[in-house]
Specification:
Helix content: over 70%
Number of helices: 6
Oligomer: single chain
Shape: flat
Order of helices and strands: HHHHHH
Number of strands: 0
Strand content: under 5%
Largest sheet: none
Distance between the termini: 15 Å
Structural class: mainly alpha
Length: about 180
């Protein structure tokens, strides 16, 4: 059951990251096209907290690559075309998560529901990885070789930062840091 949770959590995080990377690109493109304004305070219940920050890493990394307007437009088109399918996958995985939470372990069909959701999420996770990597390949084709190298370095730095946070979190709780990521 623990591996199912890891698979589901990883899948949901990956879907959310890809969808919000598209939003980050749109925001970065819109910010380039408008005049800068004073930053507004986050509204209560708005875009504050770690969710908002985490989801824009893809857009933030691409914004550091000094994309040309043509590259911005290409990336935006790639993300927009991938968005509906990724959203659909995410919604299906969310529905499966709800189905599991709504089914009690004492339910006579609990084992069957877990098996069905596990199988469905395995397929959805596979689709998500395929879609995400297709988008990544398309975006790489838009980048110059120097931008590709810079993006690789930014991705490596982000991974190192994530591992350091995990190690710090594990040390704080007195447990060994996880060896692999979700």
């Amino acid at each position: 059951m623990k591996s199912n949770r890891k698979l589901l959590a990883g899948s949901i995080l990956a879907a959310g990251a890809l969808l919000t990377a598209a939003a980050g690109i749109s925001i970065a493109t819109a910010a380039d096209a408008t005049t800068p304004a004073a930053p507004a305070a986050a509204a209560p219940g708005g875009h504050g907290g770690w969710h908002h920050h985490r989801h824009h890493h893809g857009g933030m990394m691409l914004s550091k690559l000094n994309l040309t307007p043509e590259q911005h437009a290409s990336v935006k088109t790639i993300m927009a075309s991938a968005g509906p399918q990724m959203k659909s996958i995410f919604q299906e995985m969310h529905a499966n998560s709800l189905k599991l939470r709504q089914t009690q372990p004492t339910d006579p069909n609990y084992t069957a529901v877990v098996a069905q959701v596990t199988q469905a999420n395995g397929s959805l996770h596979s689709q998500m990885i395929t879609q995400r990597e297709a988008v990544r390949a398309q975006v790489y084709k838009v980048l110059t070789p120097a931008q590709q190298t810079e993006l690789k370095a930014l991705e490596a730095q982000m991974q190192a930062n994530m591992q350091a946070r995990r190690a710090a979190w594990a040390a704080k709780r007195g447990a060994a840091a996880p060896a692999t990521s979700l």
